[in-house]
Write a structure and sequence with these properties.
Distance between the termini: 61 Å
Largest sheet: 7 strands, mixed
CATH topology: Spore Coat Polysaccharide Biosynthesis Protein SpsA, Chain A
Strand order of the largest sheet: 3-2-1-4-6-5-7
Strand content: 15-25%
Number of helices: 7
Helix content: 25-40%
Order of helices and strands: EHEHEHEEHEHHEH
Number of strands: 7
Number of domains: 1
C-alpha cells in the first residue's frame, strides 16, 4: 500500500557513469511501490566523466528526478548537506550511486515511522570491504565509541530522517565520513527518537570507489575532534552553577 508521505532520496555523484542511470531507474521502480510522491535528488559533484549528461537526461525523462551541479568538486559530505538543504520530503534518505543499500529494503524500514524520528541502518557485515577499508572502518567506530559512546554500531551506511530532524540541526562537519555521524549524535542529544536496525550491505558492481583515501580519513578525524571539543564545551557550560539572583531583583521575594 502506498503512503501519502513524500520521500526524498539523495544521491551524491562523482564519476559514476557506469552506475547512475541504473541506480536512478531502479530507485524509481522501487519508490513507486511505496510512495505516491517522491523525489530523487542527484548532486553531481563536478564529475569528469559523462555523469552530468546522464543526470540531466534522467531529469528530462523523469519528473521525479532533480539535478544539482556543484560548480567545483566539494566532496560527498558537502554534497549530501546540499541535498538535505534542498530536499522537500517528509522523510529523507541518502544512498550511494553504487547501491550499497538495496532500495527494496525500505519495506523493512518504513514500518518504524512515524513512531521514530530517524532510523539508522547498520551493515550486517563488511565482507565486501577491502582489508584497508575494514581497518579504517573499525578504527572510525572505535574512535567514535571512545569520544561519544558505543550506542550505535554504524553511522556511515544509511539513515532515514523525518524532515523536522534535518531541518532543526546545523551540521558543522564537512567530511563524508563524519557528516552523518554528527547529524545522528546531535539528533540524539536533542531527544529525537532513533532506532538502529541491521540490513545487508552490497558490494560495488561498477565504476571506481572514491572513499577511504588518507586525506578523507584525516578530514574525518579533524571533524570528529572539533565536534568532541564542541560537545565538551557544551557539557561543561551546562554543569556550571548559575549566578545567584542579587538583592533587588524582581525575582527576589
Amino acid at each position: 500500500m502506498k503512503t501519502k508521505t513524500q520521500f526524498s532520496l539523495i544521491l551524491a555523484c562523482y564519476n559514476e557513469k557506469d552506475n547512475l542511470k541504473k541506480t536512478v531507474e531502479l530507485s524509481i521502480k522501487a519508490l513507486e511501490k511505496f510512495f505516491k510522491r517522491f523525489e530523487i535528488i542527484v548532486i553531481d559533484d563536478k564529475s569528469e566523466d559523462k555523469s552530468p549528461h546522464i543526470a540531466d537526461s534522467l531529469a528530462k525523462k523523469y519528473s521525479s528526478v532533480r539535478v544539482i551541479h556543484n560548480l567545483i568538486n566539494l566532496g560527498q559530505g558537502i554534497s549530501f548537506l546540499i541535498g538535505l538543504r534542498v530536499s522537500r520530503g517528509d522523510l529523507v534518505m541518502q544512498n550511494g550511486v553504487d547501491r550499497p543499500f538495496n532500495i527494496k529494503d525500505l519495506k523493512k524500514v518504513l514500518p518504524y515511522f512515524p513512531k521514530y524520528d530517524s532510523v539508522v541502518v547498520a551493515r550486517i557485515d563488511r565482507h565486501a570491504y577491502s582489508f584497508w577499508r575494514k581497518i579504517t572502518s573499525w578504527g572510525n567506530i572505535l574512535l567514535r565509541g571512545i569520544f561519544f559512546g558505543f550506542k550505535y554500531k554504524d553511522l556511515n551506511f544509511v539513515q532515514i530522517y523525518k524532515r523536522k530532524v534535518v531541518k532543526s540541526i546545523n551540521v558543522m562537519a564537512r567530511s563524508a565520513a563524519f557528516v552523518t555521524q554528527e547529524l545522528i549524535l546531535k539528533a540524539q542529544k536533542k531527544g529525537y527518537k532513533i532506532i538502529e536496525i541491521r540490513l545487508p550491505y552490497f558490494k560495488r558492481v561498477g565504476g571506481v570507489a572514491h572513499h577511504g583515501k588518507k586525506r578523507d580519513i584525516l578530514w574525518a578525524l579533524i571533524d570528529m575532534v572539533n565536534f568532541w571539543l564542541e560537545y565538551q564545551t557544551e557539557a561543561t557550560a551546562s554543569k556550571s552553577p548559575k549566578k545567584s539572583v542579587g538583592i533587588g531583583s524582581r525575582n527576589n521575594p
